[in-house]
Amino acid sequence: MGEEGSDKWDSDSLTRASGMLNSLQYSSFIVAFVTARKGLQYIKPLTVKLQTVARDIALAHQEIAEVTTCIQHLRSNAEATFFQWFGEAERIATAAGFDVSMPRQCQRQTLRDNHPANNSESYFRASIAIPFLDHLLSELNSRFQHSKLAADVLSLVPETLLQNTVAGFNAIPEGLESLATLWDTDLPDHGSLEAEYNRWISKWRSVQDEAAAEGKEAHLPATAAAALGKCDEQMYPNISTILRQLCTLPVTTSEVERSISRLKTIKTYLRSSTAEDRLNGLALMRIHYDRDVNVSNVVDRFAAKFRTRMMLQATRMLNQ
């Protein structure tokens, strides 16, 4: 810290920088850094994708299951996995001018990890890598704990439907029945859902069989939106209603949180008495700022709604 230019920094910044430099020279810090970076690489694409707009719940469920399976594989093969991670940690430590070493072992220790190990790799695998992977799995299972319910509900999507059913009679999955009970007032005829469900299976099994007879691959809808587009509302009124509801269910709360964030920029302490209609309009304009608005159409509708303002329409026509 005594190098040229250090006098430009205040004492607090120098203290923080010195502490950071000392932390970088700890073996546990380097190993934890590499472990976190390697482990979170599996989750980062999922977290980014789940925050996008109009995510399909069927695809989201599939992506979550794939990531969870990958993390479980890493945990099951922790020894081979951490061998590569530890090698990278050693290279970073060598570049920083020190060797990765495990801390001193104590016979009786209560304030730090005291895992029995013969070498540094075994110690850090037991104290950092395995707990980290276990934590990732625990959080994924906790955050998406309704995966069984989601799987049952998504059984209406034809691509999944034929994988989980057999030819002949099929009982309604428990999760789908629970959801139908919840939406009972929205369904046209809840009592006919079982028959409708089996006719829905028969329909797509026939499509698959016809494609197989012609030597072609059956292109079955893989999302709730695609299934809704192929669903005849008169033949399958209950399934059509459920699929429509599924299409409107958000995968995460990201879109709702974005709306709340936009609302904070509109309704402030200095502008807190805005009427509801005006507030809704301003919020929609702020949220959907990327949409093109035809100003002429807005003026025409405004003038037609309020006859006392017809002069607006006349003025616009004269300007043209």
UniProtKB/TrEMBL annotation:
<protein>
    <recommendedName>
        <fullName>HAT C-terminal dimerisation domain-containing protein</fullName>
    </recommendedName>
</protein>
<dbReference type="InterPro" id="IPR052958">
    <property type="entry name" value="IFN-induced_PKR_regulator"/>
</dbReference>
<feature type="domain" description="HAT C-terminal dimerisation">
    <location>
        <begin position="231"/>
        <end position="288"/>
    </location>
</feature>
<dbReference type="Pfam" id="PF05699">
    <property type="entry name" value="Dimer_Tnp_hAT"/>
</dbReference>
<dbReference type="InterPro" id="IPR008906">
    <property type="entry name" value="HATC_C_dom"/>
</dbReference>
<dbReference type="InterPro" id="IPR012337">
    <property type="entry name" value="RNaseH-like_sf"/>
</dbReference>
